[in-house]
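Our collaborator T.R. sent over the components below with a one-line note: 'Predict the complex.' Nothing else. No constraints on interfaces, no templates requested, no preferences about which chain binds where. So this is a plain run: every listed entity goes in together, and whatever single assembly comes back becomes the starting point for the next discussion.
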Amino acid sequence: MVESNTYRSIFSPCSAQEQEENFESYWRFTQQHAGKLLEEDKDLTNKREKLKYFQDNPVRSRNPLPNPELFYRNYIKFKDDPQLIDRKTLLLTAIYKFARHEWVGISEAWNVIPDMAASKKLTDKISRVHLAEEFCHIRFFNEMLCIFHLDKVEWVPLGPIKQRVYRIFPRLPGALMDAPAFITELMGMTFYQHLDTLFGEILADEPEAQQRLREILHEIMVDEMAHVGQRRNFIGPVGIKLAQLMLPTIYRLFFWGIPEAKYLFNVEKMIQDGLSFDYTSVSSNLLKRSWVPSYCQIQN
Ligand SMILES: [Fe+2]
Ligand SMILES: [Fe+2]
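Returned assembly:
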């Protein structure tokens, strides 16, 4: 799908004509990549098949967590001191919390945006499939937790204030919503890149589990990388400047809400990686399965 070897910043400018062409090119990509939309189930045929493969060929960690109760006590809200908890448990609570935000956000948005039958514009259709893909990610995250024998995880709403923010967000006009929506996709991508590195550090004693986690993560990253470009394509010249300005605050605020994050991740480095994102940090294996806006590629 991606034809270039060299890339430009995700914040590169583009013309209205390029935006239109890129929506068309993304739409061709996403239909072929995700498969048929199963709207009733918020699912997509190709993703469903992938999940079935992971579930039919399960991988489980060699050792259970030192104390699974610690995970269950802290995964929704941290009650203990994160500094006193082993890094494997912290890693898994952080994954859950990140995914939980995504789940709340997409659940609210799913009820607001037009369904496929009511989608008149190409961008509506793109957004519907995009959201279904995000629901598939939640199933993938759930499978990640099952690798560590955590099969009693529940997906629960956030507190009333955060829940309200996510309720209002998809109802905002595009001029207000597009830049932060793009940044949250970019934050997802940089978070997954940092997660990928952490798997190697924290799960050195669990080679099979580590490999499976990575396999699942990469399934998500291929989509997420395409979402980054797709959401960037919604934004004009003013919005892109705004997005750059608001990126550090959005990242800091988001990770401030996940108290264990600072013991696992370097959030400031994540911010730098977000600001300098231009696809060169992504492996070619993932890139060739994904989609990049034409104006972020330098044609050789
Ligand atoms: Fe996602
Ligand atoms: Fe996404």
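Summary for T.R.: Residues 102, 134, 137, 188, 224 surround fe (ii) ion (ligand 1) (CB under 6 Å).
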